[in-house]
Specification:
Number of strands: 7
Number of helices: 8
Number of domains: 1
CATH topology: Rossmann fold
């Protein structure tokens, strides 16, 4: 492990089976935290755990569908029994559907809201009381540049991520007296599974890169240092913030 900034801390990372979630979980474990890896795919979670274990970290797998209130309650109980009451919660579970708004079914719309916004609400509600009791906690909600600027065919995704930002700010005010911070991170174009369809299309890929001032897609591991800092004691005066990590996308 590279450092022990988070030694003794317990972290929960949702959507930890791949992409940004996995990268953040690896970074937290590398900094000394015990990490509960949560997602729907047990097989992919085991792969993430193996990677953490190979680096000398400690992690536990919890398979759960965070769109379901009852499953979140079960997950929370399982986490507490396995690793204790969490100090850190990374609400990262998310999905996207790209299509014109008038082609969305209500079921599809609700699926995105449940995955991107409801899950963050349910997980925060489950773990906040324990953080208040300890008078320490770090909540990071993964928003998006799409909570700041929009693209066509992203209406549902944008709406859900705007909601994530609003919830984060309100939660920060509620929890500030209790030693608990709540912040958002808004990633831009990252080379993850969610964007594979774009990266594999030469024309669309070139169009995207042309709008990224640094001239490339972000790397998942580039989130690690930011996340570990925000989860540390050193970041106790940062709350209600939203930090863009987008290669300059929204600076234009």
């Amino acid at each position: 492990m590279a450092d022990q900034m988070l030694r003794g801390r317990v972290a929960v990372v949702t959507g930890a089976s791949k992409g940004l979630g996995k990268a953040m979980a690896v970074a937290l474990a590398r900094s000394g935290a015990t990490v509960a890896l949560v997602a729907r795919s047990g097989e992919l979670l085991e792969q993430a755990r193996a990677e953490i274990d190979a680096q000398g970290g400690e992690s536990h797998v919890v398979v759960a569908d965070l769109r379901e209130e009852s499953d979140v309650a079960r997950m929370a109980g399982q986490v507490r029994r396995a690793v204790g009451s969490p100090d850190i919660l990374i609400n990262n579970a998310g999905m996207n559907l790209r299509k014109p708004l008038h082609e969305f079914t209500l079921t599809e719309w609700r699926l995105i809201m449940q995955t991107n916004l409801d899950s963050a609400f349910l997980c925060s509600r489950a773990f906040v009381p324990g953080m208040i009791e300890k008078h320490f906690g770090r909540i990071i909600n993964i928003a998006s540049t799409m909570a700041h600027v929009a693209l066509a065919h992203r209406a549902a995704y944008c709406a859900s991520k705007f909601g994530v930002l609003g919830m984060t700010k309100a939660l920060a005010l509620e929890l500030a007296p209790h030693g608990v911070t709540a912040n958002a991170i808004s990633p831009g174009p990252f080379a993850t599974e969610m964007n594979t369809v774009l990266m594999q299309d030469p024309v669309r890929n070139a169009q995207f890169i042309s709008h990224i001032p640094v001239g490339r897609w972000g790397k998942a591991e580039e989130l690690g240092p930011l996340v570990t800092f925000l989860c540390s004691e050193a970041a106790g005066f940062i709350t209600g913030a939203d930090i863009l990590i987008d290669g300059g996308w929204t600076a234009q």
